[in-house]
Amino acid sequence: MSDINHSTILHVDMDAFYASVSIRENPKLKGKPVVVGAGARGVVLSANYQARKYGIKAAMPVGRARRLAPNAIFVSPDHEKYSEVSDSVMAIFRNYTPYVEPLSLDEAFLDVTGVKKLFGSGIEIAQKIRAEIFATEQITCSVGIAHNKFIAKLASGHCKPDGLLEIKPEQMLQFLHPLPVSAIWGVGPATEEQLTRLGLRTVFDIANTPVNTLIRALGDAAGNSLYELSWGRDFREVTIDEPDKSISAAETFSSDLEDSEEILRELLRLTEKATSRMRARALMANTISIKVRFADFKTISKSKTVDLPISGTQECYLVAKKLYESLKLDRARIRLVGIALENLIDQSESVEQLTLGQRPVGWRQAEAAIDDVSEKFGQGSVRPARLLND
Amino acid sequence: MKFEVERDLLVDAVNWVSRSLSNRPISTALLGIIIEADKSLHFSASDLESSTKTEIPGSVQQPGKVLVPGRLLAEISRSLPNKPISFTLDGTRVNVVSGKSKFTLPILPINEYPNLPNMPTTTGEINSGVFANAINQVAVAAGKDDSLPTLTGVYIEINENQITLAATDRYRLAVKKLDWKAKNPNFKTHTLLRARTLSEAAKFLELNQQLNISLADENSNEKLIGFTLPKKSLISRVLDGSFPPFQHLLPNSFSSEATVEISVFLDAVRRVALVTDKTVPLRLNFTNNSIQLEAGTGDEAQASESIDINYKGEAINIAFNPTYLTDGLNALGTKFAHIGFTGANKPAILTGLDKPDASTTDTYKYLLMPMRYSA
Questions:
Q1: Which of A95-109, A346-360, B83-97 shows the highest mean pLDDT?
Q2: What pLDDT is attached to residue A257?
Q3: Is some CB atom of chain B closer than 8 A to the CB atom of A350?
Q4: Which of A222, A157, A228 is nearest to A191 (CA)?
Q5: B250-368 classified as CATH 3.40.50.300
């Protein structure tokens, strides 16, 4: 990338992705406020624009969303369907450029700098992609076009839903500076509060604050990066094929649990779910972490990095169990537990440290067989005996 | 209580007993070191799992017994210059004076101190330096993961006039055999003791002293093992659980064998392993009279080196965790190593040789499991 200002970056973001896919699958929902969220005690994963009018936002507890919009329709997520649609959308992107950096199932950065001769300007490519996604998947998306990732993402956020917005380098400051500080990447509520205390409310305020003041307030890295971004300077490239950083599974209980036997059983079930997903993608984890949310919403997590990468349900469960036991919870009321497999590497890169007296056929082979059966007869057709009552 | 003591003797005594001080004791009394002055000075401490005692000479003007804060006493004695130090009990405090330095320590409630176990009767004796060396050779293979407690221990088996020590973390196994003088010639027993306790004690065992080992025989319920030097003692609770059987893992014959000069091999391993982190395998290709060492793959940093060896048998390609290999080579304590192979995914056995053409002995064996690349 010779000159960053001549790059053309697209940020494509599906509009209310989960909700849109669920509505498409069930046309009766069309035109009604729809919220995707699991269980009475889960959180909102997605809400369509009709539902958002009531103030419903992602990550809000489902209970609160119900109070805000009693007439809204609440549906359970269909993760399998979502990843299927996501795969199809990502494949459309890759028809235009190999430089596709998925950020999640429903958004990605595309670097189309080198393919404009083939497919036209950034706007033309964006229009083609939008039309193609709508034609194949009947869902809409919004596309931001700019010379870097930061501005492209801001632009897509501004033209939602079903929109398209290009910010040219010469229009950038005009667009960027009036925005609130929270528009900048990495500015969460805590940083926002710190900045407000300094009297900084807009991006313009930050851009006109000496960088040393920002560094004093936020530390070296955050201060510098905030200042650079406030002038729209973002030199990160679109990186392709970034492997998933983690695979996780979590469960909010229908009522708070305090019996550690029950919680461990749940942890085993989640471990099985997460590890089979990991094995299906031929990955192994170097780090296992668990998350526990208490009845008062206080959340703690704990992680352990193992000597050698692991992928087996039993291997991972043993680590998770030890982590849970090390919390020494004495009948605390627990709302949610979760497990995350992190620091993932490709199975082919992994080596196994053999153990003395190791049986040539052990858990690893048993679990590979379970994965094969599950693929044929469905998840859960073979499961640990402890989970048989589920 | 009032006495005077040489600084170096005090430091040695306090260091010996303070290894039994726990960081998070169940009672405040266990934070203390007991000092008892009669004809000589006695120091003791315990964390209920292990307890240590020692006796040193001192000039006692007034006998007595106090419990003083242990960590503080250790730090003070280490920081004082090499001059006589006087201890005087003054009501509820102890004054510690050396030259112009003066410390006042509060005393802890000695009546709350738990009763320490008595030393079991002596089972036999061994040269302390020989035993310390054996511990160091074996403890290197012990597990460090407290969630697998039996593997954090060193297995001690006594069979008449032979002691066998063994430790394993499942990836390697170290086994040492040594002679000792058993009091009762028909004595047989085995036990398991935390490797950390033994290694700590080994640091004090370097002199050629007589070390008495005391442990109850197989059929008794006593869960204690004791070590006694002329002026020092350690009693420790043994670990619960049984050590995995290992004799059947030691192979009788090899498919190929190498003889290597240890310092040359270690230097090469150290250099080649620079490009990896500690869990990335070091690949070794043993062929006719050379080893080719390689590490790193693909786009990462890579290194290779080859060294001359004596080799007989089929060529073998094998990969090891470099740390485990280095640990084993260092533990041999000889100039040459004999490496016996039983197959590419089977253990390799390291034994020490003083001369390249000497025949191998079976007093110390280090079994090392290779690493396997996923299919």
A1: B83-97
A2: 87
A3: yes
A4: A222
A5: no
Q: Which CATH number fits domain B2-112: 3.10.150.10, 1.10.260.40, 3.10.180.10, 1.25.40.10?
A: 3.10.150.10
Instruction: Give the best residue of B249, B278, B374 to mutate against chain A (max A CB count within 10 A).
Output: B374
What is the rounded CA–CA span in Å between residue A263 and residue A265? 5
The mean pLDDT of A12-16, rounded to a whole number, is 94
- Say how far residue A92 (Cα) sits from the centre of its chain: 20
Average pLDDT, chain A: 87
Strand intervals (E) in B238-334: 256-261, 282-287, 290-295, 303-308, 310-313, 316-320
The residue ranges of every structural domain in chain B are 2-112, 122-247, 250-368
Find the length of chain B: 375
DSSP string spanning B27-38? SGGGGEEEEEES
Per-residue confidence (pLDDT) for residue A390, from 0 to 100: 54
Distance between CA atoms of residues B156 and B142, nearest Å: 13
Q: How many CA atoms, within 13 angstroms, populate the side-chain half-sphere of residue A31?
A: 2
CATH code reported for the domain at B122-247: 3.10.150.10
Task: Give the gap in angstroms from C-alpha A347 to the nearest C-alpha of chain B.
Answer: 7
Q: Is the pLDDT score of A139 beyond 70?
A: yes
**Dihedral of the CA atoms A12, A13, A18, A22 (nearest 10)?**
-60
Percent of chain A with pLDDT over 70: 93
Q: Write the DSSP assignment of B224-286 as a string of letters.
A: EEEEE-SSEEEEEEPPSS-PPP-GGGS-S--SEEEEEEHHHHHHHHHHHGGGS-TTSPEEEEE
Mean predicted confidence (pLDDT) in A158-171: 93
Q: For the segment B147-177, what is each residue's pLDDT rounded down to a tens digit?
A: 778 899 999 999 989 999 999 999 999 999 9
Domain that holds residue A41: 7-167
For tokens 């194949």, what's the residue? A136
Query: pLDDT category, A244, cuts 50, 70, 90?
Result: low
Residue A15 shares a structural domain with residue A134: yes
d(CA A153, CA A336): 32
Q: Which two tokens stand for residue B260?
A: 């290597």
- Residues of B with CB below 8 A from A356's CB? 168, 170-173, 246, 249, 347, 367, 369
Contact across the interface for B171 and A357, Cβ inside 8 Å: no
* A170 is annotated as an active-site residue: no
Query: What is the pLDDT confidence band of residue A338, given thresholds at 50, 70 and 90?
Result: very high
Of A101, A107, A166, A272, catalytic: A107
Q: Is A282 left (phi over 0), alpha (psi -120 to 50) or beta?
A: left
From chain A, pick out residues whose CB is under 8 angstroms from the CB of B168.
356
Q: Is A5 on the interface with B (CB under 8 A)?
A: no
| Distance in Å, alpha carbon of A264 to nearest chain B alpha carbon | 17
**Least CB–CB distance from A356: residue in B280, B297, B369:** B369
pLDDT digits (tens, 9 = 90+) for B273-315: 888 776 678 999 999 889 999 988 777 788 999 999 999 999 9
Q: Which of A14, A245, A11, A6 is nearest to A150 (CA)?
A: A11
Token representation of residue B107: 């005393």
Determine, for residues B172 and A356 on separate chains, whether the beta-carbon distance falls below 8 Å: yes
ipTM confidence score: 0.78
DSSP label at B359?
Answer: P
User: Residues A214-233: what's their mean pLDDT?
Assistant: 89
- pLDDT on residue B101: 93
Count of CB pairs separated by less than 8 Å, A with B: 45
The per-residue pLDDT for B326 is 95
pLDDT at site A379: 67
Read off the CATH number of the domain in which A292 is found: 3.30.1490.100
Contact (CB<8Å) A354/B168? no
Asked if B367's CB is within 8 angstroms of A356's CB, the reply is yes
Beta bridge partners of B66: B35
Above pLDDT 70, what percent of chain B? Answer: 97
**Interchain proximity A357–B249, CB inside 8 Å:** yes
